[in-house]
Automatic annotation (TrEMBL):
Pfam (any one): DAGK_prokar
Residues that hold substrate according to the record: 64
Native source species: Desulforamulus reducens (strain ATCC BAA-1160 / DSM 100696 / MI-1)
Gene3D superfamilies: 1.10.287.3610
Protein known as: Diacylglycerol kinase
Molecular function terms, GO-annotated: ATP binding; kinase activity; metal ion binding
Protein family according to the UniProt entry: Belongs to the bacterial diacylglycerol kinase family.
């Protein structure tokens, strides 16, 4: 039971590591996330604001993982051009785009006003 749990956990980590290693977008998201967390450390966020920032970060990272999974299955099933393969890949990419936009909205609504206040209070 415990061994199965550890095994599943290891597979899940291997999946995340694969996405990080092979997808340039994931490296960009990760760098942006590190930057957002570093900036947030200076902005005295409330617990709810921290929650929203982490939620936004995880939404982007998890949609990138699902996007990579869908791309792998599509490449396996339909290496040749197929309109349905296009729909699957485009929709998966759309999910990442929507998550990235929502994280920009969170940054604009939560971080940006605090950054402005920090600069004008000096
Ligand atoms: N088998 C296919 N059939 C039809 N269209 C495809 C197929 N493979 C890719 N495409 C189209 O090309 C676009 C880019 O596909 P690709 O697999 O290169 O995705 P990507 O997001 O650029 O992947 P990667 O993360 O590997 O760079 C897809 O969104 C889709 O519109």
């Amino acid at each position: 039971m415990m061994k199965d749990f550890v095994k599943s956990f290891t597979f899940a980590l291997a999946g995340i590591w694969y996405v990080f290693r092979t997808q340039r977008n994931m490296q960009v998201h990760f760098t942006a996330a590190l930057l957002a967390v570093t900036v947030s450390l200076f902005l005295r966020l409330s617990p709810l604001e921290w929650g929203l920032v982490f939620f936004a970060i995880f939404m982007v990272i998890l949609t990138e993982c699902i996007n990579t999974a869908i791309e792998a299955v599509v490449n396996l099933v339909s290496p040749e051009f197929h309109p349905l393969a296009k729909i699957a890949k485009d929709c998966a990419a759309g999910a990442v785009l929507l998550a990235a936009i929502s994280s920009l909205v969170v940054a604009y609504l939560i971080l940006w006003p605090k950054i402005i206040i920090l600069f004008f209070s000096h």
